[in-house]
Amino acid sequence: MSPFNILPSSAQKDAVKPFTVHIPDSDLERTKTLLQLSNVADECYENAMPEGRSDLGLRREWLIEAKRVWETEFDWRATEAKINALPNFTAPVPISRSRSNEKINIHFIGIFSQNPAAVPIVFLHGWPGSILEFLPLFRLLLEKYPDLASLPYHLIAPSLPGFTLSDPWPKDQHYGMQDAAQVIDSLLTSVLGFPEYVAQGGDIGSRIGRCLASTYDSCTACLLNFSPLPAPEGFDFSTLSETEKMGVERGKWFMNHGSAYACEQATRPATLGFALSSSPLAILAWVGEKYLEWTDPRSFPLDSGKRYSRKLMEEAIASVAFYWYTKKIHTSFWSYREAFALNGQAPPSSNAQFPVRGPGKKFGFMWFPFEVNPVPKAWIEGYSEIRFWRSHEVGGHFAQLEQPGVVMGDLEDFVGSLRE
């Protein structure tokens, strides 16, 4: 048992329950059977483009191999062991302050220090991510700080509502990112009893992190690695560096060629949810594509003589399996109704709505070149006061998974700067 599972004295100990991930053997066997019975579409131009291209979507050869690996070699129990090696908990959290009697169970990894100066940090994943992407980062931190007294942080990584091990939202109405921010703040302050905390996140987690920092006094700082924003009015593009220009071009590529999934999840989540929930192979195709296109190829180099990275393939399978076994892929789409622009209009919930400014707030950013929309620093400065900035040469959308050592260094420097 991990020595870091001792709840802080401020926590509601009667509400927080230890949790162990364990998928029944019958579910694992059923999944293998479904994979065996699932057909892969025949080869055609779109899924077998010349020269290994994937302009029109996932390549058939990758899906065939990933299906084989999941069916015959992938060890879900090893993934469970990695999760369970850290302290896991669940706690009922009110869905809103106006409906305090209605609660949903939120799962979270909680690594608690006994250092009286430890800083609480909440790590917020996105889609199609999960707590899995933080495991390499947490392992590095615990290797550096192996005992309760030396760890300078409390590390909390919730599964967002509707994702994997947390309850979905109630069925009565729409819930969005501000609702998620309220749940996360309540978990940190009311349930765990921390008066202040720092937020770190990417993808959807970055939007929730911005919302926390701009709305709640308890969130004093946020360090993000994703911040899609439009260029400020009248911006002079000639001032961009060559690296920034490449980032802008990648953002254009994503919007023109890589964002169809987001439109589908925003406009027809029910239909898509039925389709993906019917087959593990369907989720593998839908989500596997994102891991291939959104990660920096330098983070997961291709295997010798292959067109794919086996390590990245296994990471994608683990993520897909997590959604599949917990039956939560269809309840994980809720944020897209707010985050994705439709009909040329601004999205209902955008980063621009949550500026992080003021003497009591600190905003930091980690810039990675293979992010799906790596906007220039000047664009972010138009909406938030940047007090910490790190630009990196390698890394993509899943920065914590791809470059955990780099993220750890930035995180430690950022939290250290809060004392300055």
TrEMBL record:
Signal peptide: none annotated. GO terms for molecular function: epoxide hydrolase activity. One of its GO terms (biological process) is epoxide metabolic process. The keyword Transmembrane does not apply. Keywords: Hydrolase. The active site is at D203, Y336, H397. InterPro entries: AB_hydrolase_fold (IPR029058), Epox_hydrolase-like (IPR000639), Epoxide_hydro_N (IPR010497), Epoxide_hydrolase (IPR016292). Residues 16-134 form the Epoxide hydrolase N-terminal domain. The keyword Hydrolase applies. Belongs to the peptidase S33 family. This is Hydrolase.
